[in-house]
Design brief:
Elements: H1 2-7, H2 10-19, H3 24-42, E1 45-48, H4 52-64, E2 76-80, H5 108-115, E3 119-124, E4 136-137, E5 141-142, H6 158-165, E6 171-176, H7 182-188, E7 191-194, E8 213-218, H8 221-231, E9 261-264, H9 275-290, E10 294-297, H10 306-322, H11 332-342, H12 346-366, E11 372-376, H13 404-408, E12 412-419, E13 425-431, H14 437-450
Parallel strand pairs: 2-3, 2-6, 9-10, 9-11
Antiparallel strand pairs: 1-3, 4-5, 6-8, 7-8, 7-12, 11-13, 12-13
Length: about 475
């Protein structure tokens, strides 16, 4: 029974609590046992809460009295270790941060989850300061993929993905500055959405600036919609936040995609993509046509955004490392990126910002003709742990589909759409116009009805 509890969705748990057929305590106990059993193999958590059971007992008392605290009362949730969480060190995968703190603040996402009664399980692993698309760090070592522990779960929200995919909690808070929600969701067969920039308040601002988003990761679309409803509640500390839009993102989720105009691009017109990934995604796009959408193969028509993104990202890394006094324990790859960023001039950064604006305008115009753009999430399937990239260059060389939409601030989601011959998940990316988060969720839900999300066989992780 405990195995089943670990795999229930957040919405199923809430329904069980409401009907008194499930207990927040027994659910939390089952998930904590799962963490104890699997975390040594996957390294998804770098901190496990000592208060999770106390929070579950408090939730159970509220449900027993008919007074649940909020939309997530009693649902176990993990927090990526880039997000401040009161009472816990937020070490960001780095040996350069003093664990003694003080740690007196909740980031907006942590605060909203706490206010809505979620059981906070702990902090999930990240590469140092979230700088790359895989999850290993000098502080926490290598995080592994539940589908194949010899493969990376991706990053930088790799610990979050490994946790959710293996039943160590149904929901996880991720961040996405260049693909860091969508990359691990693609590699581990999950659903995740990078909301429109500012939809989920964030504080403090990421060292990498306004390309960074906060969003939900889950095992189905409805759970992510529920989580986004909570996470998008307002917080005055975020100067960049969008005006609050009171809505439940579960409403209209079943609206389907009939008559939507969907552009499908296999490579954005310039990216190199693994042929097996291309074929899996190409076949899956037919699902939208079968559901009544008007699908057309069409590249969005912008040039390679890599240089523009790298100018933003590398200069952010330079500013981050400039404040680090002792650089000896820092990830050498991060130091290399920061060194390149330090050479970027103010004029070059301003030019990149202008090109970023032009890209945003281009996509605004593109979406006058197309409601959605769908692409592969990534150019490759999961590769061996312990390396930044399976090809030459940097992590941005195999993530050409993700970071353009960090530059534009558009909502973009990844949903699993098939498997390689080696049994590894492949993700489909769904991109919407700015602020059309509900539309992206609706399209993802429609796809999910035709292609339900599968979970890994965890028997391979048994001793």
């Amino acid at each position: 029974m405990s195995e089943d509890l670990c795999l229930l969705s957040a919405n199923a748990l809430l329904d069980g609590y409401r009907r008194r057929t499930l207990s927040p305590v027994e659910v939390t106990e089952a998930i904590l046992r799962r963490i104890e059993a699997l975390n040594p193999k996957l390294n998804a958590f770098n901190l496990v809460s000592e208060r999770a059971l106390d929070e579950a007992k408090a939730s159970e008392a509220r449900w027993s009295s008919g007074q649940p605290k909020g939309l997530l009362d009693g649902v176990p949730v993990s927090i990526k270790d880039l997000i401040l969480t009161r009472g816990w060190p937020t070490l960001r995968g780095s040996k350069t941060i003093n664990p003694k703190g003080p740690w007196d603040d909740d980031a907006p996402a942590s605060a909203r989850l706490r206010e809505h009664g979620a059981v906070l399980l702990g902090k999930t692993t990240t590469p140092e300061f979230g700088w790359k698309g895989v999850t290993d760090s000098p502080l926490t070592g290598i995080t592994r993929n539940p589908w194949n522990p010899d493969k990376t779960p991706g990053g930088s929200s790799g610990g979050a993905a490994a946790a959710v995919a293996s039943g160590m909690g149904p929901l996880a808070v991720g961040t996405d500055g260049g693909g860091s929600i969508r990359i691990p969701c693609s590699f581990t067969g999950l659903f995740g959405i990078k909301p429109s920039f500012g939809r989920v308040p964030a504080w403090p601002l990421s060292p990498f600036g306004t390309v960074a988003h906060v969003g939900p990761m889950s095992r189905n679309v409805a759970d992510a919609a529920l989580m986004l409803t909570v996470m998008s509640l307002p917080d005055a500390r975020d100067w960049h936040a969008l005006p609050y839009e009171p809505r439940d993102y579960r409403a209209g989720l079943e609206g389907g995609v009939r008559d939507l105009r969907i552009a499908y691009s296999s490579n954005l017109g310039y990216a190199e993509v693994d042929p097996e990934v291309t074929e899996i995604v190409r076949k899956s796009v037919a699902v939208f046509a079968d559901l009544g959408a008007k699908v057309e193969e069409k590249h969005p028509g912008f040039e390679n955004a890599g240089p523009v993104f790298q100018t933003h990202w590398f200069s952010g890394a330079a500013a981050l490392i400039r404040a680090v006094k002792d650089r000896k324990p820092v990830d050498p790859g991060l130091l290399d990126v920061a060194a390149q960023g330090a050479k970027i001039t103010a004029a070059e950064l301003l030019e990149a910002q202008m090109k970023r604006g032009a890209l945003g305008t281009h996509m605004n115009l593109f979406h006058r003709d197309y409601d959605l753009l769908v692409t592969p999430t990534l150019a490759v399937a999961a590769f061996a742990v312990g390396q930044e990239t399976p090809v030459k260059g940097r992590w941005t060389d195999w993530t050409p589909f993700t970071y353009p939409f960090n530059l534009t601030g558009q909502p973009a989601a990844s949903i699993p759409c098939g498997f390689t011959q080696a049994g590894l998940p492949v993700g489909l990316q769904i991109v919407g116009p700015r602020y059309a988060d509900a539309l992206v969720l609706r399209a993802a839900r429609a796809f999910e009805t035709a292609r339900p999300i599968r979970l890994p066989d965890l028997a391979r992780l048994a001793p």
